[in-house]
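Fold it.
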Amino acid sequence: MGKQDGSDRQVTVGPIDDSTATILHVDMDAFFASVELLDHPELVGKPVIVGHRSARSIVTAATYEARKFGVNSALPMGIALRRCPQAIVLEPHFERYQHFSRQVMSIFDDMTPTVERLGIDEAFLDVAGARNVFGTPVQVAQLIRQRVRQETGLNCSVGAASTKFVAKLASGLCKPDGLLVVPADKAVAMLHPLPIAKLWGVGAKTEEILRARGYNTIGELAAASVTDLRRAIGDAGAERLHELAWGIDPRTVQARADEKSV
């Protein structure tokens, strides 16, 4: 499935059975900040914050070097600069981000007609039908990463799995600039050691409630009964979270016509 590569990320190394991992989640790495660095290559490897320097403004984006100091998007700029006073602040250029987003999404569309955009910098792709043209899911993922890098100068991370939830989780675990494949029969083993905050739909309030009841990992939540979870968080989310904890996610990739023009 994947292994640590010396950093905190998990990446797939060597041959793997990817026959069930036909859903890809592709997420651009620090997208806005990376676009800005194309115009400022001398700043690569340095803590860079994208946003207006006014203390009342908020951080639009940050490089991974800045994130190590606790600087993330939506953080007030004043706090960000106190946490990382050596950071270089660059003004945002949203038209540029749209331009590169269109380029990236066009690459996705070349791979498969089944692309579900999740905003300007990420998407789900169902590549089950791409095997005869582009090869296995891993080969498709590698081709996407190669084309994105060659055609835009940017990096992306790709999670491949049999469900949308696990694919999205995998792309986050392999960041930055990684590929993580999770075959269907390995999904539960990957999920269960992770903290419950990794479950799709578990926000701060739900996490607090679950932790108060002794559920700290996805595996602990999976071992609970749905009845107990209903008592904790109500009927609406209990069954869904329990299914996700076992890697069950029936949602399919939905391509929408109105998304063709980003």
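The mean pLDDT is 93.
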